[in-house]
Write a structure and sequence with these properties.
It is built from three helices and two strands; from the N terminus they run E-E-H-H-H. The protein has 106 residues and is mostly helical. The protein has one domain. Strands 1-2 form a two-stranded antiparallel sheet.
Length: 106
């Protein structure tokens, strides 16, 4: 789970799921129904989901951030007691992931 801004900035990485869930909960507080106007805008923008290039590009950015953070953590583990994870990481790109769901926050 990664929270990435529209500009590609990672707001919270995959190692911070609680932070991501807390942010989503805060953003959704007091909203019990979908905001139809925003759903309509999203459908126009994406041609009812047929043009998801913008979100596919953000997904690529998200995967790149996961690879970067995982690599950094693996390198950090070289200098910590208890063994390393540097040789266990085998994430190379999009094919190593399965998109289960996404949330667009506006």
């Amino acid at each position: 789970m990664v929270y990435i801004a529209e500009n590609g900035e990672v707001m919270s990485n995959h190692l911070e799921p609680k932070k991501t869930l807390d942010l989503l909960r805060l953003l959704c507080r007091g909203k019990n129904e979908p905001i139809i106007e925003l759903c309509h805008e999203f459908n126009i923008e994406t041609r009812d989901g047929r043009d998801m290039r913008k979100y596919s590009d953000l997904l690529q950015e998200t995967i790149a951030s996961i690879i970067d953070v995982t690599t950094d953590n693996a390198l950090d583990s070289l200098f910590k007691a208890g063994g390393t994870t540097a040789l266990k990481t085998n994430i190379t790109g999009l094919d190593d992931f399965e998109l289960i769901c996404f949330v667009v926050v506006r």
